[in-house]
Amino acid sequence: MESMLFCWIFLTLGWTLIDGSEMEQDFMWHLSKIPRVISERTFHLTSPTFEADAKMVLSRVCGIECQKELPAPSLSDLEDSLSYETVFENGTRTLTRVKVQDVVLEPPQNISRKGASVRRKRQVYGTDSRFSILDKKFLTNFPFNTAVKLSTGCSGILISPSHVLTAAHCVHDGKDYIKGSKKLRVGLLKMRNKGAGKKRRGSKRSRREADGGDQREGTKDNLERTKAGRRRKESHRGRRVAEGRPSFQWTRVKNTHIPKGWARGGKGDAALDYDYALLELKRAHKKKYMELGISPTIKKLPGGMIHFSGFDHDRADQLVYRFCSVSDESNDLLYQYCDAESGSTGSGVYLRLKEPDKKNWKRKIIAVYSGHQWVDVHGMQKDYNVAVRITPLKYAQICLWIHGDNANCTYG
């Protein structure tokens, strides 16, 4: 109990000191005009085979290691990468070509690093700094209630009453849709109600005893319950945790959107910069969701910190929260050392900043957690955990997916 209390105190202090302290300067969300991504034409494609393995295999990844050498992308390149595939519940598939307007083409950031990158399983650095969210009061309330679990084993985050943002590689390996994604489901958090019946029976017995029932029997029952409780506590200190473990309300996915920058098929390699996807749920939920925001630069992050929660495989069905500082960035990626294991990929990375002209703070998603990557820095291998930033163009694209047009996507 003491350790859990310490964790919650520390967690609360983490939100206070790191996620928006008066000791920091006033960090604010700044609304900016968003480029226009317009659907131009939609084509029907052959249905996918859904035979890919649930692993992301990238032969070439260009993140911070080769940003300096890259020329600025042309408008036609951007339009090709932001065009998107949609897979529907019945297995049919379309490709939508887009036009991009009102965009300012910026050169890649001047970061001189070269090398190849691969993935491996280890994603925890040194002392494990993750927190399992076990208390129902926290678990079922914002922001933790926005985290969801995918039937393919990844995580995601609610961004509207009907939409979930996740990593593209959770449903597609860059060439084909993975096994199990044809009948993709999303698990929304709910709490088990174990022992509800026992509580009702216990309350009836208490009323009988209060009305003059057999006091000796009541005393004996209470003694036995006390002994049983002590045995359970001594044999399994985590019993209360197990009883509070969440379960999921599973909902089918109506359709899935993936940018063509990721879904290259046999025509090229998937680009890590486009490792994000949007899932539309078959049934809308009533939970509070988290809005999208444009990813600020590292200098504009409170304490340089980011936050995200997901369902790491090494903590069965527990929601795991973490926060850490960002170590480096490129135009499209954040590089950090947030402790994370497989299963947390697809989580929404968020910040809490002040709203313009208001005193209240607001959390928004500014990236999607993608996973682990190795980078050759000046001839030495260095590994990071990587998140895909929500840039103005990606904001416009995801907003188009949510609303079906760009009428509500002018500012973000």
TrEMBL record:
GO terms for biological process: proteolysis. Its main location: secreted. Residues 208-227 have a biased composition (Basic and acidic residues). GO terms for cellular component: extracellular region. It comes from the Eukaryota. GO terms for molecular function: serine-type endopeptidase activity. Residues 1-20 form the signal peptide. The keyword Acetylation does not apply. Residues 189-207, 228-239 have a biased composition (Basic residues). Transmembrane segments: none annotated. Residues 189-248 are annotated as: Disordered. SUPFAM superfamilies: Trypsin-like serine proteases (SSF50494). Keywords: Disulfide bond, Glycoprotein, Hydrolase, Protease, Secreted, Serine protease homolog, Signal. The keyword Ligase does not apply. Residues 140-197 form the Peptidase S1 domain. It holds the Pfam family Trypsin. It is found in: Secreted. Belongs to the peptidase S1 family. This is Inactive serine protease 35. The gene is PRSS35.
